[in-house]
Amino acid sequence: MFIAPHTILHPFGVNLVGQYLRRHTRFGFRASSAESVNWDKKQESSKRGRKNKAPAETGLEVLCDDGFGSVTVKDYLEAVRDMPKDDGGPPRWFSPVECGRPVVDNTPLLLFLPGTDGVGMELILHHKSLGMVFEVRCLHIAVSDRTPFGGLLQIVEEHIKYEHALSPNRPIFVIGDSLGGCLAISAAACNPKIDLVLILINPATSFAKTPVQAILPLLESMPSNLSVTHSQLLRYLIGEPFKMAMVSFQNGHSLQEALQKFSDSLQSMLNLISGSGDILRMDNVVWKLRLLMSGAAYANSRLHAVQAEVLLLASGNENLLPMGEAYEPFKTLKNCKLRHFRNQGHNLLMEYDFNLLTVIKGVNLYRRGRKRDVVIDFLPPTFSEFKKTLDKDYKPLHQLLSTVMFSTLENGKIVRGLAGVPDKGPTLFVGYHQLLPLEKTSIVEGFLKEKKTIIRVLSNQLLFSEHFGTLRQEFSLFDSFSVHGAVPISPTNMYKMFERKEFVVLYPGGVREALHRKGEGYQLFWPEKPEFVRMAARFGVTIIPFGCVGEDDFMELVLDYNDQKTSPILETG
After folding, report:
1. Whose CA is closest to 280, among 319, 238, 219?
2. pLDDT tier at 301 (50, 70, 90 boundaries)?
3. pLDDT the model gives residue 464
4. Among the four residues 13, 18, 375, 473, which has the most C-beta atoms within 10 Å?
5. How far apart are CA 438 and CA 154, in angstroms?
6. What is the DSSP letter of 95?
7. Secondary structure of 523-567 in the HEC alphabet?
């Protein structure tokens, strides 16, 4: 089993914190839940020390193993099969054993609200990675449970209010998948003063526009013990077996080995799916669809009242819910970010290449207080993130550039590699921007590979703005910069990083130097009075000047700003 033997429950209408804690002590519930009473005190006492800690000293090590990829959809189906189908109990909260105890100080709370199956194990591929930086709890709704949407909302609201009463300054992250998205929206709308962060994964707010709405009366007339066989409905409820079978085999196999592994995996998936018959029984499916219908109507009527920070994750290959106009209402929210994964299916959490923690880090959503601090709340990249972004996504670029790094030892000898660079900070690298600063990712990769050190690149504020519109609607280059340490340039951020003895990269020439014009290759556009020198002297920072050669030589500008100004074709008047 993947579920902790202790569940976290409290009856409706009970808001007394003292009674709840006494019950925790009496029944031996998870200690971290009771400890959250002192969360604010612990946060205040460690705040001063946390400011002076480098990322690796806050508990999460650079390039650590986050466990992503070690669990597959097969494990999810086995967990569903082993889950009690009808224990007679109400919906309840549980803490997955795989999550363990967080390794980061003063972790926020994460509540997971499940989709249509209600089991609460859809997060299983992400349990270990999320458990390192969150205190994770999941809602379990038994297959035969018939609690209406209003009752489920009451359970979620009470738990949120209880946790907020214990620690008013602790942010509460709420992940809602499909039906859970409707619950999350409704709970946030009813509690606008509580610090909530919503992560909505294909919320079922557009259920009324789906073809299932039209065939629901027909499904209600079917025998209750009949299993669902509608292909689209099956893919929506449990995913696509062929795609799930692809998760478990990796590159490096011969064609014959790959086909055999795929065949075995597919057969195993189909056997496990057939063992989940209770979820696919007609009466259970009809009840879930009714929940979706009532939940979507309730959430849509209160969407305008949501004040929480919202991250909307939408799939491009939806099986039932239409994309596009379906999420138009979310644009009215004042604090909503959208990421559209065009090649992923509806069961986004089950996709083998979708890492939820990476997305959270990439959109700068993770925080441990009421307001995010881009320096203190930064989480260093894990090994799986390094392999996915720098070692895979950027591999063609790095092969094209064929970057070679040299450094100078104390005796003046120039050596290949970073042996001449100090092992400890604070260190400030001051360099020249080449055209379209393509060298950034190579520098970050080099320091991670050779020194296992995060290098924080001070970048223009535009890279972190959500005004890019469609450019920011897919996890892309901008998000990967944030994952690997990019930080908005400001005196305050530089001061904090020097205080924490970090490695910092500064390009005094800024955007003007990065987007230089014809004939301006290798020219500096630095300010006459670099203010960073005075701040660096205060902290005893080692300043290392560096330069990059090559990009301005093999790239030639065809059209620049001056050409656009004088061209009658491009002139806008």
Report:
1. 238
2. very high
3. 83
4. 375
5. 51
6. E
7. CCCCCCCCCHHHHHHHCCCEEEEECCCCHHHHCCCCCCHHHHHHC
